[in-house]
């Protein structure tokens, strides 16, 4: 059992646990403060009693009762000094360390809330907000591309401003295809982010919180052990009482401290909606494959730019990850050495702030690892697509709609002269098609082959 495995959806329960523990620590602090106050007052009363007794007039003879009484007074004075010393030790030792523990525990709660919110916000942004924004833009660009296509067809039919309509159609389609690529990459990254969040980031934060909770429980145990040692008076009656207290303190087990809590707040894992490519976006598009990178004349340059940007971001992330991992390892080594050099049990309280800093650093490392995994998946997707097309030219994007003489592909002036009569015939045929749009598409292929027969 553990926080990361069993309490992934128990955020509110964990906050209640920390609030309850803080209230408990405040109660222990008030108890110790009253104990110090009462011990000081008791010691002051004992010393005052002995001073008043010594001011009485001495007797004229030496009595055995007087000797015994004198020893009683002397030992009582010694007891007063011991009690006063114990009160000072309690104040400067366990009580001071307990106040430090309370401050550290408050900071742990605050850091956990901040890191949890940061983690959830990042996950929600990548897996939901960004995707919804892209899907909305995707649908709008689909409509824009379809509108441009219809206007282009109308321009062809009317024979006016066909070039301008074709240009608008090209631009609208380029925007759609580039956004499609961006959406595919975002879906890929969101899938990895969701998996990293569910399998690594969130459990790692919870496991780190559990270790901090156990460390603070160990610190409280050490404080109470030191309290028992200082406050013990070694009388038969007090020994019995303090044995009971000590036995109770020894029952504290940091590793088993939260087992009952986990049992009480255990909840079944809620199935999370997986991130998938929304195929409904393609209902109004032409020949766009689902969840695949588009590589054509309109996207070739942008894909190269995307790959370069992804590589640069990946290199920066990996460099930062290496630095943070080194810092975390160094900090952990220093903490271990400090633990080995500790002179008192409660000295572990002094390391809690360093352990909290290590927790936050490890969280940063995990976040960077998630980012690295996401970027690697996107880079792999781009590399695979570009590698598969490295020996081929980008494919044309738009379906060929015959509306002009494609003389750009004919480089020889002599061939143009030889086929001038064919162009005249083709021009008259095109004029006829514009008057009858229904037959236009059916005749395009035949006319093209007739006007431009393959070279033999």
Automatic annotation (TrEMBL):
Keywords: Coiled coil, Lipid-binding
GO molecular-function terms, A-Z: lipid binding
Domain F-BAR: 1-257
Regions annotated as coiled coil: 102-182
PANTHER family (alphabetical): FCH AND DOUBLE SH3 DOMAINS PROTEIN, PROTEIN NERVOUS WRECK
Protein name: F-BAR domain-containing protein
Species: Nothobranchius furzeri (Turquoise killifish)
